[in-house]
Amino acid sequence: MVDNALSPHGGVLVERVASPEEAARMIHGLPRLPVREQIARECVNIAYGFFSPLVGFMGQADVDSVVRDMTLSSGYVWSIPIVLDVSGERLASVGVSVGDTVLLTHQEQPLAVLQVEEIFSYDKEFMAGQVYGTTDLAHPGVLRTHSLEDSFVAGPVTLVNPPLINPPFDEFWKTPRQLRKIFAQRGWTRVVAHQSRNVPHSGHEWLMKGAYLAAEADGILVSAVVGEKKLGDYIDEAIVLGHNRLREGGFFREDVHQTSTLLWDMRYAGPREAVFHALVRKNLGCTHHMFGRDHAGVGDYYETYAAHNIFDELPDLGIKSVLTLEWWYCPVCAGVAYEGLCGHRDQKQDLSGTFIRSIIQGGTEPEPLTLRAEVLEITGQCAEKYGFGSPFVTDAYLENRTPVMSLAAMDCTCCCET
Fold it and tell me: What does the pLDDT look like over 113-122, one tens digit per residue?
């Protein structure tokens, strides 16, 4: 099943957010089920339509279809299971069973209401092998899957307490409906998405510029992933503000570039995650999605261009892939060069993560056009303001950072069971 360009996946943009009056009524008398940050983010994504056509956490039929065939039971392509895992002990203590309605809480506040349609179990090793192409526990996605609880709770979700997005992310977090409105106001009918989880170097900049030209686009949407972090990652603030600085610095015109954020915990599922990223950005209103080398990969689990090849196996998704080779710094060409054009492969200087990190950490003198001075400057400012002295994730950052999203206090002491 496919949709037309610019239409959301499934044809209808899901939006399941209760008004304050509805929320007060809906949560009355409900048992509470606390959820971790990942699940809280996914509740938000479901409710605002980032995950259209999903209206809630997947049931067994959808999970099995996604795991085996990369489609929902409805026939629409979907590549990553979206599940709510809960221990049997927790379910028993809350007293939740099929047919019940439960209040999902986070940060000790109401978040969303879940109608429990199904409670089931699933072979986690089989799930990991299908989604990640490996059962090696050294793969972070496989480890994540094995760490899930043994029961999955499925059913529609309705948001009752919209999140407060904290600075500096508040300027950049937009719902699919909001982004689509921005695109319409700007007259963007061809929008190419750039997935990002790094501070942008010049290879990223030219990846975007090349994709913009190849797609004959009206605009570029930088969709920066903000979610679970591990030691050594770039801090989220540096990623988002670094991309925005490219526009502020004039490297992209104001009317062709937009920075946004996606609340998502990377699965590092390589080609499967590439498909997922394309579908989510389709829901945001994008018509094209750029994919370079090692998209959403980790280690050596996937071939360099696995994220390119998987789209050959799929029907038209309603969003076109813009597939690019590698960009590097060429001292002979005296600038950033494209693998498909540059004839100096033996003299190339890879714009690798290690090399760029050495520049940011001050151990290497940057060559011209490897990392914009403006991006280097904002990265340093983020290190001091948000990163406790480092632009990379440290224990101090994980323990003390301001959360990306917070929940406002809701007075439900008289209407919620504990």
Answer: 999 999 999 9
Supply the pLDDT for residue 357. Answer: 79
Confidence of residue 370 (pLDDT cuts 50, 70, 90): confident
Q: What is the residue type of 322?
A: V
Q: How far apart are CA 293 and CA 336, in angstroms?
A: 16
Rounded Cα gap, residues 60 and 122, in angstroms: 8
Domains along the sequence of the chain with CATH: 20-163 (3.10.400.10), 169-400 (3.40.50.620)
Residues 284-304: what's their mean pLDDT? 92
Query: Which residue carries 């029907």 as its tokens?
Result: 315
DSSP reduced 3-state for 319: coil
Tens-digit pLDDT profile for residues 323-344: 888 888 888 888 888 888 889 9
- Given phi > 0 = left and psi -120 to 50 = alpha, else beta, which region is 325? beta
288, 320 Cβ separation under 8 angstroms: yes
The whole-angstrom separation of Cα 38 and Cα 210 is 34
Note whether 158 and 111 are within 8 A (CB): no
Alpha helices in 293-415 (DSSP H): 306-309, 353-360, 373-385, 395-400
SS3 251: coil
Active-site residues, by number, are 197-198
pTM score > 0.70 for this model? yes
Find where tokens 């750039």 sit. 194
Q: Is the peptide bond before 331 cis (omega within 30 degrees of 0)?
A: no
Residues 6+ apart with CB under 8 A from 156: 16, 55, 56, 114, 115, 117
Closest CA to 83 of 137, 127, 29, 50: 127
Tens-place pLDDT, residues 17-27: 999 999 999 99
Instruction: Give the 3-state secondary structure of residue 323.
Output: strand
Establish how many alpha carbons lie within 13 A of residue 234's alpha carbon, considering only the half-sphere containing its beta carbon.
Answer: 29
Any idea which residue has 């994504």 for tokens?
A: 45
pLDDT digits (tens, 9 = 90+) for 69-123: 999 999 999 999 999 999 999 999 999 999 999 999 999 999 999 999 999 999 9
Closest CA to 217 of 284, 290, 326: 290
